[in-house]
Amino acid sequence: GDTAADAVSTCHGQTLNIGASTAANLQYSAAYVADKKGYLKEEKINAKTVELGGGSETLQALAGGSIDAAATTFAAVVTAVNKGAPLVAIASTANRNTADIGIRSDKAPAAGADLETAIRALKGLRVAVTSPGSGSDQTLRYLVKSSGLDPDKDLSIVATGGASETVAAFARGSVDAFVIGPPASYIAAEQGDGEVALKLASGVAPSLDNLLYGTIVTSERTLAEKRNPLRCYVRAIDKAVRYIHDHPAEAGDLLRPQFEGQMSDRQFALSWTSIVQSTPASAAIVPAEALKAAKFVEVVTGAGRIDAEKAYDTTFTKDLT
Amino acid sequence: MNVMAVGADSERRTDHPLIEFDHVGMIYQGARQSFVAVDDLAVAVPRGQFCCVVGPSGCGKSTLLNMVAGLLEPSRGTVRYDGAPVQGPNTRVGYVTQKDNLLPWRSVRRNVGLPLELRGVGKRERAERVDQMLDLVGLAGFGDAYPRELSGGMRKRVTLARTLVYEPEVILADEPFGALDSQLRTVLQDQLVRIWERTRATVVFITHDLGEAVALGDRVVVMSSRPSRVVLDRTIDIPRPRDVFSVRFDPRFAALHEELWAALSPEIEGRGRA
Amino acid sequence: MNVMAVGADSERRTDHPLIEFDHVGMIYQGARQSFVAVDDLAVAVPRGQFCCVVGPSGCGKSTLLNMVAGLLEPSRGTVRYDGAPVQGPNTRVGYVTQKDNLLPWRSVRRNVGLPLELRGVGKRERAERVDQMLDLVGLAGFGDAYPRELSGGMRKRVTLARTLVYEPEVILADEPFGALDSQLRTVLQDQLVRIWERTRATVVFITHDLGEAVALGDRVVVMSSRPSRVVLDRTIDIPRPRDVFSVRFDPRFAALHEELWAALSPEIEGRGRA
Amino acid sequence: MSVIAGPMEAEAAMPAEALEADGRERRLRSRRYRIVVITTRVLLVAAVLGFWQAGSGTIINPFWVSSPSRIVARLATWLGDGTLWANTVATLTAMALGFTLGSLAGVVVGFTLGRVRFLADVLTPFVIAVNSLPKLALAPLFILWFGIGLQGKVVMTSLVCFFLVFYNTFAGARDTDDELLGVVSLMGAGRRDRLIKVIIPSSATWIFTGLRLAVPYSLVGAVVSEITASSEGLGHLLKTSANTFDTAGSFAAIVVLVVVALVINIAVSKAEGLISRWK
Amino acid sequence: MSVIAGPMEAEAAMPAEALEADGRERRLRSRRYRIVVITTRVLLVAAVLGFWQAGSGTIINPFWVSSPSRIVARLATWLGDGTLWANTVATLTAMALGFTLGSLAGVVVGFTLGRVRFLADVLTPFVIAVNSLPKLALAPLFILWFGIGLQGKVVMTSLVCFFLVFYNTFAGARDTDDELLGVVSLMGAGRRDRLIKVIIPSSATWIFTGLRLAVPYSLVGAVVSEITASSEGLGHLLKTSANTFDTAGSFAAIVVLVVVALVINIAVSKAEGLISRWK
Ligand SMILES: Nc1ncnc2c1ncn2[C@@H]1O[C@H](COP(=O)(O)OP(=O)(O)OP(=O)(O)O)[C@@H](O)[C@H]1O
Ligand SMILES: Nc1ncnc2c1ncn2[C@@H]1O[C@H](COP(=O)(O)OP(=O)(O)OP(=O)(O)O)[C@@H](O)[C@H]1O
Ligand SMILES: [Mg+2]
Ligand SMILES: [Mg+2]
């Protein structure tokens, strides 16, 4: 009822603890841009970053009240919510899967091969994902199933634990292929004599396109207690998403210094392209995209119907569109 | 039935002996089999008596003292102290164990001072009594040494000092002078008798030296080898005060020694000579 | 200068004594201060001799045996064994230590069998010799017991058996009979003398019992209290073979006993009686 | 007046009977004691489980803690479809190998450094240094050097066990009575004899404490390396469950781990009991 | 013929001098020994570093192992901009608190269970069960219960220390000579006296071994909880470096950890030395 009042509410320097992964990941570009461009200041919100290991830690920290919001995949949110987790996605930061699939040079399909060919090339190989049940694992399983293979039989999926571990495993030859986001994908390809065969962000997999991928998630508790600061934060994120979408080159230049020394110019450029390609026009959650993400989870887990509705809340972004 | 009456001067209370073994048996559960160390023993020690115990090695003398101290529970019968069965450590007795149970991390002085410390005796008085005691056992100057730095005989003397220093009601002593040269032994025997005469403590004193038993005791109990029984219970009627240096020349000394020897001899005869 | 000549029958080689203390000194570094336990000692024990050592408690007797065994390095001078300085554990000696150093995790039988085991004696022969030895020290039937299950005297006997069983060239014995009743003591003295007469081992035997020293030894060395020196070195001229049961009635026995006592007395006089 | 009585002749036959009676009573008492102990344990477990079951869904969100009934159901499923067996075997293999290798190395190095003072003095800082490295942070290097399969897990597990056993063995070797060693040397014991016949038995309590410490840690080591990198094992199961927010699955895996740890610990205790009969 | 000589009178004044000389020689010998030990250590370190520096970029890919010079450079940077100090303090705070709390609890519970047999018999399986839980897998629950700040780290660290100290204290308490305890009881020692005057001193070696074990593990515990979730500390630094493929940074953080572990270990040794002077 007080939507109008919410719309004009401003914040007064309240603090929000935001969870983020420590990985050299451009996944959080929106949050970085919101900071670098001064959008957080404009909204008078103080966002303090807390770095966390992975998806489950992040959601647990949210539930325990250690953090107020975090950037994570919608697939994780929807899975958790359907298991009873008191969580809600409140903004969209990516609407396309950004994972890359890399493969050993001698096993790689010819350049420019289509999705089907590239996936079939994985048959019989050992493929690295970061962690069982994680985004990379789910993506791989989805694609493999979609091309009519059995992820448990036709290839062997190996969890490595993280980005640097994937690079190490590929460099040593413990795996023949990997599914991971940029820039780790490029670093792995370089260290391990392989190539990035498939960039999902480029739109090669229509079924993974136009689906809610990256989100800002919060807990029901924070939602009840810090509604106003969350609103300010989402507005800042929205501004950042729009900036990236509308001014990709400037945004890239803005972020480049942050990753100085962590990746080469080429790696950054390639990664940034993926981010731009997956960044939506605004942070508004599109219900259809959320539904498509839920379908993705259904296929991956094969555990029956997944309800997407409970997992997101559009009230924060409704008036932004 | 060999029930004997022993005339002893129970000075304070006469209704019951201070220490009483009431048909006590001790059966040790060994690794493979169990065996009887003490078999239905009945002995009583009245208050104030200096009672010496002799017997062959391994017959169960230490076992008896452990029971009086409450460190060991008899398998059968009851050990009574001052009329009540002994249950758990009997803090009214002082025990000079056969092995020197010193605390290796404490200096000699702090080892001897331990019982005083536990009884809340003040620091100054403690230091004084400890020093006096160390002097008595010939260890003046070794107060700061650790047990590791002492010879076997010196360690045994520290154990003795630790028990005498707090003047317990009963002194149980398991071969306290065994590791000492004969001279020092005589000196300490003399000291012990003097202390006993002054404090009128009850003493149960195990020794392998028959002469020592006769010289010190009001009574000598001779035990048989396992399963152990009392083979002789002899009152030593040499009058007090005695001088341990000259008592050996008392005419009764030789006779008593002879009698004890005779009682003990069959117990060991043939053993080892086979 | 008190350099004395001792006529001893070095049977095999006569060029040098088997054990020789060449102006040996031992200074212990204590916690706070260091002190002199042995001061410039020079003694030699010829091959085959039964040498008894007596001296006040804490004078350094065990220290000397430890040096011969190579468990302790002298601070000054040299201890020579068969002509060569002792360096590291001297495996040619058998040592009955003052404390019973048994291996608590081994049964009595396996404790006594240990030196045979180490010398590669076969299982059957080992069992035989061990059983014979246990019998000798009166512990037949206790072969399967663990040290924890033995009395103090029994443990000491196991230590003795463990040394005698492998018939070492030299037997160092530190009060081996201290914890035993007089009867058993006499029996074992007798056995020891028989074994010695048969094997002609060299024996260095510490005791606090002057009678024992006279009854057993070819020679008795009397030591002073710290810093320890030799105050008397007496050849025991009672002829062999001796019977330990009756040697006490030998006319020379009393005189020798008296002489030793006199030598030892000033060393302890006044101590503790102050 | 005091009374002294010798044994009554009528009771000369006592010992045999007494022994019987004594033994029976002793056995009875110890059996009664064991029953009390086990009952108390069962009651404790029942209380915790009861509280958990009752609280789950009422005062606690089952999303976080699941409930005993769900966990049991999950275990039954896993047992039925072979998941449980396959993964337990995978973890146990890694654990057993790692435990064995690590403990062996710990014992050997512990004794070596414990008895050779110079080596100990020189190497101690290095041992501490290596031990204070957070193995989790070295995961990439581990993967690079040892891969992700069994080998990696075994290396990780044995590293964890090694230090625990090493420290305790080292302390035990140092704690050996030098007098005992000296006396045994005199009897002709060489370096090897001293080690085998004196130092090892006298350090037994220490070693077993180290081994007992190492049991849970070896399991943890194997599981942690499965959590970080693996394609099978209880750790993998645990991580998969955690990542898919399947709390019942996580707890089911943990239950299996605990049971395994308890069983192995009982085995170690039994071994120690056999070896320390002399105590 | 054998010769026996008493002390020569001329040397009556020997002892005093001898003492002097002996003490001097002893000091000299021990100093020489320490120099040899330290030299050997330095040479070993130099060899490793030299090999590392030379090999990095030639036979090993510096992407994985960086090189000593780069690590030193990184440390210098961190030292200059305050990164090092701030993060070290954060980790040390967590570690110190966790170590203290965990070790204390370990000692207290260890003594309690070590001397009260019934409690020990009932609780042992539970202790093992809790200890065999992989704490890493429980990280989410820890975060839920204790948050991500200091509290969470301290709980994790003290849990790790607790078990190490507990097991050793328990074994030490059990190992106390019962005869000694009995004799001291006779002198009038109560429960408390026995604990303080006998059980604790006699378990000192065990406790110190536990503490020494706990030092590196407490550091690892603090670092691991920083690796899973944190915004500061050496673990954070380590994880950030690792995730950004900054090997020099990772190793620099590890060097700091090792130095911290060594320093603390020296402190524990000194404490033990002071307390065990009687040995
Ligand atoms: N803990 C035990 N377990 C089994 N048997 C034991 C135990 N303690 C003592 N014994 C046995 O009980 C008997 C008596 O032992 P005890 O120590 O009382 O003898 P003792 O008379 O003091 O001998 P000694 O004069 O040699 O000290 C011995 O035969 C011994 O083997
Ligand atoms: N490790 C040590 N550190 C310091 N002093 C020691 C050490 N060992 C022995 N001493 C001292 O050396 C002296 C001689 O000790 P030793 O054990 O040789 O005496 P002993 O003649 O065998 O005495 P006892 O007859 O009592 O066994 C003693 O005064 C003792 O205090
Ligand atoms: Mg005894
Ligand atoms: Mg001695």
Automatic annotation (TrEMBL), chains B, C:
<dbReference type="InterPro" id="IPR003439">
    <property type="entry name" value="ABC_transporter-like_ATP-bd"/>
</dbReference>
<dbReference type="Pfam" id="PF00005">
    <property type="entry name" value="ABC_tran"/>
</dbReference>
<dbReference type="GO" id="GO:0005524">
    <property type="term" value="F:ATP binding"/>
</dbReference>
<keyword id="KW-0067">ATP-binding</keyword>
<protein>
    <submittedName>
        <fullName>ABC transporter ATP-binding protein</fullName>
    </submittedName>
</protein>
<keyword id="KW-0547">Nucleotide-binding</keyword>
<feature type="domain" description="ABC transporter">
    <location>
        <begin position="19"/>
        <end position="250"/>
    </location>
</feature>
<dbReference type="InterPro" id="IPR017871">
    <property type="entry name" value="ABC_transporter-like_CS"/>
</dbReference>
<dbReference type="InterPro" id="IPR027417">
    <property type="entry name" value="P-loop_NTPase"/>
</dbReference>
<dbReference type="InterPro" id="IPR050166">
    <property type="entry name" value="ABC_transporter_ATP-bind"/>
</dbReference>
<keyword id="KW-0813">Transport</keyword>
<dbReference type="InterPro" id="IPR003593">
    <property type="entry name" value="AAA+_ATPase"/>
</dbReference>
UniProtKB/TrEMBL annotation, chains D, E:
<feature type="transmembrane region" description="Helical">
    <location>
        <begin position="194"/>
        <end position="215"/>
    </location>
</feature>
<dbReference type="Pfam" id="PF00528">
    <property type="entry name" value="BPD_transp_1"/>
</dbReference>
<feature type="transmembrane region" description="Helical">
    <location>
        <begin position="248"/>
        <end position="268"/>
    </location>
</feature>
<feature type="transmembrane region" description="Helical">
    <location>
        <begin position="154"/>
        <end position="173"/>
    </location>
</feature>
<feature type="transmembrane region" description="Helical">
    <location>
        <begin position="89"/>
        <end position="114"/>
    </location>
</feature>
<keyword id="KW-0472">Membrane</keyword>
<dbReference type="InterPro" id="IPR035906">
    <property type="entry name" value="MetI-like_sf"/>
</dbReference>
<comment type="similarity">
    <text>Belongs to the binding-protein-dependent transport system permease family.</text>
</comment>
<keyword id="KW-0813">Transport</keyword>
<feature type="domain" description="ABC transmembrane type-1">
    <location>
        <begin position="84"/>
        <end position="268"/>
    </location>
</feature>
<keyword id="KW-1133">Transmembrane helix</keyword>
<feature type="transmembrane region" description="Helical">
    <location>
        <begin position="126"/>
        <end position="148"/>
    </location>
</feature>
<feature type="transmembrane region" description="Helical">
    <location>
        <begin position="33"/>
        <end position="54"/>
    </location>
</feature>
<keyword id="KW-0812">Transmembrane</keyword>
<dbReference type="InterPro" id="IPR000515">
    <property type="entry name" value="MetI-like"/>
</dbReference>
<keyword id="KW-1003">Cell membrane</keyword>
<protein>
    <submittedName>
        <fullName>ABC transporter permease</fullName>
    </submittedName>
</protein>
